[in-house]
Amino acid sequence: MSEQKYINNKNENLEPAWRDRLLLESLVGQILPTLIIAEPEKVDEILEFLKDESLTLSDFFKRFPEYKDLEIKDSLAIEKHFAPSADENQDDFFPLVNFNHSLLYYLTEIIKDKNILTLQPDDNYKYQLRVSLYNNFNRYLNRLLMNIEPHEAETLCLALVNVSDYKTFLQLLAKGLKVGESDIINNFFNPINKK
Predict the structure, then answer these.
(1) pLDDT tens, 66-103?
(2) pTM of the model
(3) Rg (CA), the chain
(4) CA torsion sign, 105 to 108 to 110 to 112?
(5) C-alpha to C-alpha distance for 47 and 133, rounded to whole angstroms
(6) Separation between Cα atoms, residue 139 and residue 155, nearest integer Å
(7) Closest residue by Cα to residue 142 from 83, 191, 187, 92
(8) What is the Cβ-side half-sphere exposure of residue 90, based on CA atoms within 13 angstroms?
(9) Which of 160, 138, 112 is nearest to 22 (CA)?
């Protein structure tokens, strides 16, 4: 199988998996605030469950059937995101950074430190911010990779896809793109370069 075909097949498998994961994390974001007060030991159990990123919403309902009938408040927004848009080519989206990647938390800290946004303390806001960073930073990375030779982009993509540490990820990305690490981050937050 060629590297490009491998990437395309992974993309087809990743989108539904991350849709499911976003729904799962949204549900957990809804129930945690009440549980922290009422059943703190259950919070630890749920957070431990979430550490395994291969577990699905269905797995969660098997383990915690009491939440099976709870409506996921953000489900419409998530479904809307995953529905193909007429003005956007969804086929070009390949998520190199997963939803729980340390890079997304690093970007959140930059947002906080530079006062780019007024961060709200509630969990739902933090979740929505991470959804936004997941979508926008991955699309930004896709655009960066389109600026280098296709075979170099494929090699770099395969090297990055399993790197979970944000420092290592940025070092590899900067080396592959032949730019500075700070340029990658600064250009992401610069609206001119995000169009």
Answers:
(1) 888 877 765 555 555 444 444 444 445 677 888 888 99
(2) 0.53
(3) 18
(4) negative
(5) 21
(6) 18
(7) 92
(8) 12
(9) 138
pLDDT at res. 176: 92
Residue-level pLDDT at 112: 80
Q: Which SS3 state, helix, strand or coil, does residue 105 take? A: helix
Q: Is the distance from CB of 105 to CB of 137 less than 8 angstroms?
A: no
Query: Half-sphere exposure of residue 88, counting CA atoms within 13 Å on the CB side?
Result: 12
CA-based end-to-end distance of the chain: 33
Indicate left, alpha or beta for 108 from its phi (over 0: left) and psi (-120 to 50: alpha).
alpha
**Looking at per-residue confidence, does 170 or 48 come out higher?**
170
**Residue from 75, 78, 79, 46 nearest 60 by CA:** 46
Q: pLDDT value at position 177?
A: 92
Average pLDDT over residues 126-151: 84
